[in-house]
Task: inverse folding
């Protein structure tokens, strides 16, 4: 019986010898084989690696040794984080046969803490998308309503938790790719502060906006996973030398007297009325828990999407230049080197990836750099300044995660701009680098989940998690 | 600013992409639609605003306003390590994913075309 298991349940059951990590891993693989043909969350399973790790945990339990914090916990990893000896594709055909020679730091830290890695999760190609329909393999279906998208780009990470095919997962978030699918699938997802979690081994999309973060069913589990993966890593020079608090212990501090900001810019036109009602009710609940609700203003919010799509695509055009067919991945047959580059990239990349490379290359090309890229970087300063000012008055800011619940598969596929607008409430946190969480706050009339988003100050995940935890418990 | 067919071809060339005729047409339409939306950034007066390239420009233990660029990332500075942070990948591992290799080098088609 694997459903409804939390991290603490797993660890306790193994420590008390009610089950073994090996039996549990086998149960999860059985469940994935039964359920995932209709969900599509996994791209690759790594049974050998999982069972080796489970065996190690079982040997520790049998010897009566103290178990590490994530002992035997079945987890899965978005396929944009490299795993030594386990195929890593970024959901792209250009990396279809890529077997990395090293582990992403976040993955290595999870495994060192006892977690059992079941496999690699589907996503939009190179994490570019908001619905997981841009996967070069197959789309992911939302476990709550299979005719709908799970969100994206970490759609597989959210769906695997929602469908009980993993206890916790890792995703990446460049413009909302953890929080938006968490909201669409009814699970908890956290994007930490930029620099909180090492990006070493994360396949780069937009380096100044990319973040790794956890998904789970509860805030406490997300706090546990964050505690495991956070902290300075010499392999990532942008990972910050800032101490990592005990996020789990911090959850129990009272929330009474904390100031919760509400910005009118996140409740404007385009917000679904049922989402608005659910988020407003959640804010009312925070008031009942003793938080002070304070109006704040984030006046540049309407400029966030255009800013984001220039900065993100400019960085992507540089990062994706490395896929040239020379050292790894797909190579097209050609007679000359330049033909090989072009044909490899033409055959290996999907349409959305090409579109973003084109947009980004245009924005940094001679004659357009100042008008687009430099302009966007300046507006990024203004957007960040908005948060600086707001956080002088409040401890967290509450908002919807997404303007609507999960949309239908195919609904926005032919309109890139409409798809980009699905990220309207999430991209700001990436541009400013502040932490943000999505926590379920009810369902609409079609039983589709709605997410409450909470933002915090740089490196203050503890307060964000604490408020989210208090809200979750009050429901 | 309106993107033209010529721009699409030029940018595809810069990006080492070989687009089909159909892809070029779609790209022309999509780039113009997205850039039209981006135009709204010009409503903002930004002459006196500093550009932000990195979140980490803004924090760090010795966040010193007088330092510029990467000098401000307190944590980007470390003592020299004689052998580097870690050993390089062994040769055979480094070429393992190569589409074409003789075991020592990555092999590619003819480089000099004329």
Result:
């Amino acid at each position: 019986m694997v459903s409804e298991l939390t991290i603490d349940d797993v660890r306790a059951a193994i420590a008390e010898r009610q089950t073994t990590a090996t039996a549990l891993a086998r149960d999860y693989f059985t469940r994935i084989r039964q359920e995932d043909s209709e969900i599509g969350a996994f791209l690759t399973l790594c049974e050998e690696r999982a069972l080796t790790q489970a065996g190690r945990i079982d040997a520790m339990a049998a010897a009566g040794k103290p178990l590490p914090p994530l002992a035997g916990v079945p987890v899965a990893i978005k396929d944009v984080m490299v795993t030594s000896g386990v195929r890593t594709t970024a959901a792209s055909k250009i990396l279809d046969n890529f077997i990395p020679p090293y582990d992403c730091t976040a993955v290595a830290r999870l495994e060192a803490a006892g977690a059992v890695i079941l496999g690699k999760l589907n996503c939009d190609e190179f994490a570019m998308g908001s619905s997981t329909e841009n996967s070069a393999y197959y789309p992911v279906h939302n476990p709550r309503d299979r005719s709908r998208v799970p969100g994206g780009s970490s759609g597989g990470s959210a769906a695997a938790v929602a469908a009980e095919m993993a206890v916790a997962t890792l995703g990446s978030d460049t413009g909302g790719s953890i929080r938006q699918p968490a909201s669409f699938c009814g699970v908890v997802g956290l994007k930490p502060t930029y620099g909180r979690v090492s990006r070493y081994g994360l396949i780069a999309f937009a380096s100044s906006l990319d973040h790794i973060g956890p998904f789970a069913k509860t805030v406490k589990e997300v706090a546990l996973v964050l505690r495991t993966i956070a902290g300075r890593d010499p392999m990532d020079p942008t990972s910050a030398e800032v101490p990592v608090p005990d996020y789990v212990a911090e959850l129990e501090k009272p929330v009474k007297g904390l100031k919760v900001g509400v910005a009118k810019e996140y409740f404007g036109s385009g917000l679904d009325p049922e989402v608005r009602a659910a988020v407003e009710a959640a804010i009312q609940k925070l008031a009942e828990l003793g938080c002070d609700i304070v109006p704040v203003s984030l006046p540049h919010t309407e400029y966030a999407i255009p800013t984001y799509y220039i900065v993100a695509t400019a960085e992507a055009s540089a990062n994706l230049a490395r896929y040239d067919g020379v050292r790894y991945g797909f190579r097209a047959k050609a007679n000359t080197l330049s033909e090989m580059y072009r044909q490899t990239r033409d055959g290996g990349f999907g349409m959305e990836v090409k579109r973003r490379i084109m947009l980004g290359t245009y924005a940094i090309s001679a004659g357009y750099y100042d008008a687009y890229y430099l302009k966007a970087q300046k507006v990024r300063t203004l957007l960040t300044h908005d948060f600086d000012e707001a956080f002088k008055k409040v401890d967290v800011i509450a908002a919807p995660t997404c303007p609507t619940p999960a949309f239908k598969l195919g609904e926005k596929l032919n309109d890139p701009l409409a798809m980009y607008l699905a990220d309207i409430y999430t991209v700001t946190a990436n541009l400013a680098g502040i932490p943000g969480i999505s926590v379920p706050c009810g369902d609409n009339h079609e039983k589709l989940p709605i997410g409450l988003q909470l933002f915090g100050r740089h490196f203050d995940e503890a307060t964000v998690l604490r408020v989210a935890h208090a809200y979750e418990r009050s429901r | 600013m309106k993107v033209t067919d010529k721009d699409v071809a030029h940018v595809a060339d810069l990006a080492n992409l070989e687009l089909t005729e159909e892809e070029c047409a779609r790209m022309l339409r999509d780039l113009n639609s997205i850039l039209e939306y981006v135009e709204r950034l010009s409503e903002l007066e930004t002459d006196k605003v500093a550009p932000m390239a990195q979140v980490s420009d803004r924090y760090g233990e010795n966040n010193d306003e007088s330092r510029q660029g990467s000098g401000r990332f307190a944590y980007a500075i470390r003592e020299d390590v004689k052998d580097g942070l870690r050993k390089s990948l062994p040769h055979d591992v480094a070429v393992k994913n190569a589409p074409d290799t003789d075991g020592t080098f990555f092999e590619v088609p003819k480089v000099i075309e004329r």
About this structure: Chain B touches chain A through 62 residues (CB under 8 Å).
